[in-house]
Amino acid sequence: MRLEHAALRALLPHRYPMLLLDRVEDVTPGESLTGVKAVSGCEPCYRGIAEGQPADRYAYPASLLIESFGQGAAVLWLLSRRAGTAGLPMFTAARDVALLRPVHPGDVIRHRVRLEQVVDGAAFASGSSWVGERRVAEFDSMMAVVRAVDAIVEPRDEREEPR
Amino acid sequence: MSERDKHLEQLREIVAEVLEMEPEEVADTADFVEEYEADSLRAIEILARIEKTYKVEIPQAELNEMRSLKAVHEVVARYAGWQD
Amino acid sequence: MTVAAPAFAPDRTPAQTYAEAAAPLPAVAWVEVAAGPRGGITLRAGTTVDPDDVYLTGHFPELTVYPGVFTLETLRQAVTAAVGHCAGRPPELHRLRSARFLAPLLAGDTLTVEASVGPVAQDQSFEVTARCVRGDGVRTATVRAVFRWPVEDGDDGR
């Protein structure tokens, strides 16, 4: 199954410029997904760079690369969830993520995501990101939950204090 | 090493990895929340790793029970059919 | 090849750090640096969640939530300001050993990062361990990561 951008917008609550997935080339719900993100020099992450910086400074931010992979994992998970479970997917933990090579404007990233487990409303995904034949990142474990908006903005005096 | 000891050591390693401790620092009866500052997400992570490692399904209702290594072992033994 | 590991040199402001490399947002308002054990340093840095930031308007339109990856961005910019460049290159996030996001940061919330950094290894990498706290004292994240000044043109030889 293939998902175009309109279908991703229907699934993910993220919007410009934080919707960091352009297309899903192939997905087996609940199992695996290949997602595509084309990096462009037009993205706002390039707007603040001072003139005259060397070429390496245009490397795509690791934070956005990780988010983009995470959105692929979220799509994979949301497709296998029952309808009517509204809320925002929240990235809650990551373990052993390796950033191997820089990505630059013009590169097309392919995220290969596997859904490892869904336990008690939490999803665990793993996989890797590629530009052509080169692996640019590896993800050993990414964990996410879906939280209702009410739960995110809950009154703070009632929140359990972490020790 | 008895089956029980073997299982206990495997579980100790899983718990230590999730709580970011050394296995020898995880005491058998220490409460994860009280003594190791674990939060509910870590409990879910421990459960997820156990389910994956032992190919068992543990109902989420048991999460509340799984507060120490010894308690985790008892719960897993019940669902994995260990004769420990 | 240099024989001695490079030293930390806190020589940049957060604004300079933002202007020197691609970044989704200026993710640090202030940084303080102090000497740490074994040649390492400790840093404190902070920012306030601005709902008008262009990326945050998309995360999410119905409710501003500072994404977990932006906490990583705050940490990267704080580390860069605190350790400086090496051979003209800023440090990059090389390996995220563990990141854990515990509580949400919403519009107007302040985020304070406290991190121990280094010492620097021979391969120009250094460990960073960070605790992140919200204005009301609630811990929002813990992060363990390896940063590295690139040795060659962005290829780690794998």
Automatic annotation (TrEMBL), chain A:
PANTHER family, A to Z: 3-HYDROXYACYL-[ACYL-CARRIER-PROTEIN] DEHYDRATASE
Q: Which residues cross the membrane?
A: none
What the entry lists under Pfam families is as follows: FabA (PF07977)
User: Known InterPro entries for this protein?
Assistant: FabA_FabZ, HotDog_dom_sf
Keyword Lyase: yes or no? yes
Signal peptide (residue range): none
Does the keyword field hold Lyase?
A: yes
Assigned keywords, A-Z? Lyase
State the similarity comment: Belongs to the thioester dehydratase family. FabZ subfamily.
Name of the protein in its database record: 3-hydroxyacyl-[acyl-carrier-protein] dehydratase
GO molecular-function terms, A-Z: lyase activity
Automatic annotation (TrEMBL), chain B:
Q: Which Pfam families match?
A: PP-binding
* InterPro entries reported for this sequence: ACP-like_sf, PP-bd_ACP
Transmembrane ranges, per UniProt, are none
Task: List each copy of the Carrier domain by range.
Answer: 2-80
Signal sequence annotation? none
* Record-given protein name: Acyl carrier protein
In its UniProt entry, the species of origin is given as: Micromonospora humi
Automatic annotation (TrEMBL), chain C:
Which Pfam families does the record associate with it? ApeI-like (PF22818)
Q: Which Gene3D superfamilies match?
A: Hotdog Thioesterase
Q: For the ApeI dehydratase-like domain, which residue ranges apply? A: 44-129
Q: Which InterPro entries match?
A: ApeI-like, HotDog_dom_sf
User: Can you say what this protein is called?
Assistant: 3-hydroxyacyl-[acyl-carrier-protein] dehydratase
Q: Which organism is it from?
A: Micromonospora humi
